[in-house]
Amino acid sequence: MRNNRVLGLLFPNRHDDALRELTAERALGSVPFGGRYRLIDFALSGMAHAGIGKVGIVTKRNDQSLMEHLGSGKAWGLSRKTEGLYYLAPHDVPDTLYDGRVAALHALDDFLESSIEDVVVLSDCHVVGNLSYKALIESHVDSGADVTVAYRFGECPALADNLVLDLDENDDVTALRLGVNPAGDHACGIGTYVMNKDLLRRLVAEAAAENFMHFDRDVLLRLSQTLRIRGYKAPAATYIISSPETYFEASMALLDDQRRNAVLPLGTPVYTVNRDVCPAIYGLNSCVSRSLVADGSFVDGTVKNSVLFRDVRVEKGAVVENAILMQGTVVKAGARVSHAILDKDVVLSEGKSLTGLAELPLCVKKGKHV
Amino acid sequence: MFRKQECVAMLLAGGQGSRLYTLTQKIAKPAVPYGGKYRIIDFPLSNCVNSGIDTVGVLTQYQPLELSDYIGSGQAWDLDIADAGVHILPPYQQTSGADWYKGTANAIFQNRNFIERYDPEYVLILSGDHIYKMDYSNMLAFHKSHRAACTVAVLAVEPEEAHRFGIVNVGDGDRIAEFEEKPEHPKSHLASMGIYIFSWAKLKAYLEADEQNPASKNDFGHDVLPAMLKAGEPMVAYPFEGYWKDVGTIDSLWEANMDLLNPNVPLDLSDPAWRIYSNNPALPPQFIGAHASVQNSMISEGCSVYGTVDFSVLFPTAVVEEGAEVRDSILMPGVRVKAGAKVQYSILAENVTVGENAVVGERPEDKENLEEWGVAVVGEHVTVAENERIPAKAMVDAKGGGAHA
After folding, report:
1. Is B281 within 8 Å of A269 when comparing Cβ atoms?
2. pTM for the full model?
3. Which residue of A169, B236, B278, B321 has the fewest C-beta atoms within 10 A of its own C-beta?
4. Per-residue pLDDT tens over the stretch A209-219
């Protein structure tokens, strides 16, 4: 399936600061998640499933790991003769203004103009879930709205620029509130927007001309009385990653059958890069329960309520509980780790113990030997 | 225009593998699943890529659909290369008529035009029947340094096993003195691995002569190699050391999978310097449930285990429900073992469902007469009914029961 009318734009650097250590050397979109994915895989696979054949990746900094991951876009079916993946890095945009998105889009106006697509889907990468971009786009086109904003109904994420949508019974936006996190359940934007390309270009040009640089505040909020803005409800199992704690929670949600099947359905798979590692091997002493384990791992110890990425080793007598072990992590014989996120290639030496708190998981930086 | 290649590989993948019975009813032997996520053909294909050989012809004949689909563009092995890469070569019609591949040598003869367009010095002949990791570039260097017309890879087998193989007797300087096909009293225990390197000009001449001989079976082992030896061509034996397993029978396929669970068996599939590539669907990581027990096993992406798994190999999307037990078995993709069922010493082919409380296979220690024991096999898409018992050595396919030799 191929849809020539829709252009995808991904912003992998948005909310970079939310994950602290995990984004020290990588863009947020490149943060590993769920045993074998990167956060960007969710939005990118969603776009691929909707038949979007042209996707621009708008990067700003720390994009090496992301580019390595995406490569030519083959894994998402986006390495093609016509269109496919575009790396867009408007480097001349001032740093402070860039997160406002308007500056970036303004700098990319030539790309937008030359694209034949007439609908644009913009998406951040801090959300995990199985949003149907196809249904989102159809709802936008059918409703004739100017802008459709995907939202999750639930607790507000602890983001400084959280966008709350007040909606009528038809999902039409009656008011927008930015930078507030009221208690209780609300419709909160998940950083995914659908707009007609010409309208997007016009609004961006107008905002840029007046030095308005924040898309939500200076475009959506400012014009919310003149534009017809609609909401589109994302599935209940949609996780907004706004901190290491929420990253941890979203990971742990995958250990629940129902939520895992909702986020990682077999029918519409989340695509990612295949690393050609052999299946996971469980040793004589392995004792694993309620855990997600990726290929290439070797487990000979105890693993409980945890997520093991590819090529993780848990040696005999080691105990891993309520932990996320990223690719290449080694927990040596007799070592213990609980309530922790161990970034790639961390080595926990024999007999060492690392314990975080349930409400505050410990983060260990990539490559650290403890 | 095609780029000249020093060496072109020709992979004989047309065999039926009839001793795998129901497992090869709808697929060619090289497409048989092995090792949790691989198929047999991944080994020679990956060996080619890792050895720097990037032009490979895959000769298909028996049930080629799934194999052709699997190989696709060759992308999974990095063999989607504009002027080289992997090519599927089924038999085809010519103005002089249409022929199936009569024998291994005839299959190569019929595809001489494919080989010629790369103008190679050497041709590497491989089969899709074996599990092994081998650097063919070392064998090619050996062939060149011996100025041989033909090099045959050989492996030392146990003397008591030698009578099951094609035996190569070696004289001075690695020169091959004699071939013996499954000899009753073998003079050596060097077995031919079915891997040959030929100097292409020589091979071409012998293939042409072989085609003129109405008595020939057009087979490398039976006809071409003996003819070359008789004519006094320089033929040498290249000694290979390492893991090599023919997976042509139910027992050997089961054993070869179990070898992966034995840390003492020298077959490392996780060596980053010699990756075995495979073509796999995108699936989430495996999930091990709260009450599961998993030991001594190899488990793949997309599997869900809620029961007990011990000494077993689970392929993608296999599901073992709570209270089910799987021991000493191989579950191919899409198998579901329902609650309370027991699977032991069995091979369950793709998409088999084992009903609740059914028992598939038997333990050898529960058999008084070991002659009656063997691995049980359930063919693809078969549903084993609730409470049904499938005995040892059974061969169940969609058409009903049976047994393998």
Report:
1. yes
2. 0.93
3. A169
4. 888 888 888 88
